[in-house]
Amino acid sequence: MKAFIISKYTKGPLQLADVSIPFVGKNEVLIEVHAAGVNLLDSKIKTGEFKLMLPYKFPLILGHDVAGIITEVGKDVTKFKIGDHVYSRPSDYHIGTFAEYIAINEKDVAFKPGNISMEEAASLPLVALTAWQALVESANLKKGQKVFIQAGSGGVGTVAIQLAKHLGATVATTASSNSFELLKSLGADVLIDYKTQDFESVLKEYDAVLNSQDIKTLEKSLKVLKSGGNAISISGPPTPEFADELRLPWYLKIVLALISFGIRKKAKKKHVYFKFLFMRADGSQLQEITNLIEAGIIKPIVDKVFPFEQAKNALEYVESGRAKGKVVIKIK
């Protein structure tokens, strides 16, 4: 089969290669890939930014989002059958959706929403699971609370705004003014132009912040939280608790403790909670998200769809930071 690979950590382009169709384990399904979502995480893994935490072996097929049709099932698979239309965020160390086929453990797979296309479905798993794990699991967001979601026009932001509104929260977000109309349509209540406004002077007494920006923005975000509020960051810095979740060696736990010491100290001083979130694959949560999509509560926002042979262009477009919503590669 055809796949886009890297042979080492690199800032160079992806390579198109012929590789073997994956072996299907007893708990796995083989998915004929129709579309694959493109994420900044793919770029960070490609350049080696996460090599201490996620040491991959080469050659490596990138890609963390998939929508397609099951063509083979392992002998112990119980939830799915050949011909099912599904989507997934494969678990770490089992990624590889920039390819014609991928084998994925059935626990990480969900039935594709019936009211959207393959391309739209492929745009959702990673960002929707990130939003769910941040707002539902970590922040325990409730009706009547207030949440600040940074970079509202991004992949995570567009889904998180819709999910937060479904949960009954008031939503503030940052974006450029030319994205305001889109974000209002998704449910954003407070729109802050990051080019001309300082969110610190606008927001007060918020229950939760979803941080996707740099450490300076994260530090500012602590100031808009009420006592007992939650600062959840998907862009770092990683914490010792994260090291425990990934079962990293003791010396890496010490490194992460040092890296995150400053922000953890500031959060404690302000009586707020800080958590670094590195989303995980979860088919059951994704099935919950399917229900919300089919109910019309969450809709995918896709900026561009690239043909398979232009996968490297798709990744470069994501790296440019210009995308509104998600970028997808059409494979089948």
Name some characteristics of this structure.
single chain; 332 residues; alpha/beta; Quinone Oxidoreductase, Chain A, domain 1; Rossmann fold; 2 domains; seven-stranded mixed beta sheet; six-stranded parallel beta sheet; 11 helices; 16 strands
Descriptive notes:
The protein has helices at 40-46, 118-122, 125-138, 155-166, 180-186, 199-202, 215-222, 240-246, 250-269, 283-294, 311-320, and strands at 2-6, 15-18, 28-38, 60-61, 66-73, 85-88, 101-105, 109-111, 146-149, 170-175, 190-193, 206-211, 225-233, 273-276, 302-307, 326-330. With 332 residues, it is of the alpha/beta class. It has two domains: 2-124 and 301-330, Medium-chain alcohol dehydrogenases, catalytic domain (Quinone Oxidoreductase, Chain A, domain 1, Alpha-Beta Complex); 126-276, 3-Layer(aba) Sandwich (Rossmann fold), CATH 3.40.50. The strands form three sheets. Strands 3, 5, 6, 7, 8, 15 and 16 form a seven-stranded mixed sheet that branches. The protein has a six-stranded parallel sheet with strand order 11-10-9-12-13-14, with helices on both faces. Strands 2-1-4 form a three-stranded antiparallel sheet, with no helix packed on it. Helix 8 packs antiparallel against helix 9 (250-269). The chain is globular, with a radius of gyration of 19 Å.
Structural topology:
Elements lengths: L1 E5 L8 E4 L9 E11 L1 H7 L13 E2 L4 E8 L11 E4 L12 E5 L3 E3 L6 H5 L2 H14 L7 E4 L5 H12 L3 E6 L4 H7 L3 E4 L5 H4 L3 E6 L3 H8 L2 E9 L6 H7 L3 H20 L3 E4 L6 H12 L7 E6 L3 H10 L5 E5 L2
Parallel strand pairs: 9-10, 9-12, 10-11, 12-13, 13-14, 15-16
Antiparallel strand pairs: 1-2, 1-4, 3-5, 3-7, 3-16, 5-6, 6-8
